[in-house]
Amino acid sequence: MTAPQAGAPAGTGRHARMRAMELYRFLQQQGFGGRKACRELVDYGLVELDGVVASDWRMAVTPATIRTLRVDGEMWPVLALPCYLMLHKPAGYETSHQPQHHLSVFRLLPWQFANLGIAAVGRLDVDTTGLLLFSTDGQFVHSLSSPRKVIPKCYQVTTRHVITPQLLQQLRDGVLLHDESAPLAATLVEQLDEHRFNMSITQGKYHQVKRMVAAAGNRVEQLHRIAMGALSLGELAEGQWRLLDAAELALLGYPAPA
Question: Which residue ranges does the record assign to the Pseudouridine synthase RsuA/RluA-like domain (predicted)?
Answer without folding.
Answer: 84-215
